[in-house]
Structures are given as C-alpha cells and as structure tokens.
Amino acid sequence: MKTPRRRAREFTVQALYQSALTQAPVAEIAKNIRESSDFKKADDELFTTLFFGTHANQKEYIQLIRPLLDRDENDLSPIERAVLLMACHELSAMPETPYPVIINEAIEVTKTFGGTDGHKFVNGILDKLAVQLRPNDPQRH
C-alpha cells in the first residue's frame, strides 16, 4: 500500500516530467496533476513543496548532480532526471526528512516509472549527493 507521501513523490515526478516535455506553465501542470482521480490519496502539501521547489531550483540542482554523473546529463532518461532533481530538493531544502528515507523513496519511485536498472543508477548518484549535501548528518556516523 502506497503512503500519501509516496504518492506525492510520484505525482511530483510526473509533474516534473510533464514540465520538461511540454514547457507548460507550472501552475497549469500542478492543476492538471491535482485533477487526477488518485491525487486525493496523495499528500498535497508535500506535492506542492516538492514540485514548485524542485522546479524553481532545477538549474542549481543539475549543477550539483552533473559532476556525479557517469554520462552526459542529456542522456539521462526524463524519469531519472526528475527523480534526481526531486531528491536533490529534499536533501537540500527539507532537513526534517532523513536522507535514507529520501533515497529509498527515490529508488521506489524510479522502480515504478523508470527503466529496468534505473533505480541502481539513481541510488548511486543519491548516495554521493547525500554525502555532499548533508556532510554532518548524524545518521552517517
């Protein structure tokens, strides 16, 4: 059974994916996502925070992610890119969420929407990103 927070993350990835492909206004994308029949089962506050925060800061986040990639950023699947950006936002802007939870959620969302081994790639990048963004996290020691 998916939690409301997992659903919010899945909808965030869908919204980021739509944004990357259509260049539609973010408010319009968010409105369309919220009209989905399953959205009522999602954490709307988390969706709002993740989607708008990630979208607003994606240029900064891709700068953090780019050096960790083993391929050109243009070769990322749109799903992997959306998941990495969303997780980067959570790691950067939401210290109340433990980093292992962020990484695990990103892996699970990638398994839902991504390619066969996409979750392994996402896991590797996020492990490195967590060290960089949360160097003093007590869970690391």
What can you see in these coordinates?
The protein is mostly helical and 141 residues long. Helices cover 69% and strands 0% of the residues. The chain contains 6 helices and no strands. The protein has helices spanning 4-22, 26-34, 44-65, 78-93, 99-113, 118-133. α1 packs across α3. The termini are far apart. The relative contact order is 0.14. The mean pLDDT is 95. InterPro entries: NusB-like_sf, NusB_fam, NusB_RsmB_TIM44. Keywords: RNA-binding, Transcription, Transcription antitermination, Transcription regulation. Involved in transcription antitermination. Required for transcription of ribosomal RNA (rRNA) genes. Binds specifically to the boxA antiterminator sequence of the ribosomal RNA (rrn) operons. It comes from Neisseria montereyensis. Residues 6-130 form the NusB/RsmB/TIM44 domain.
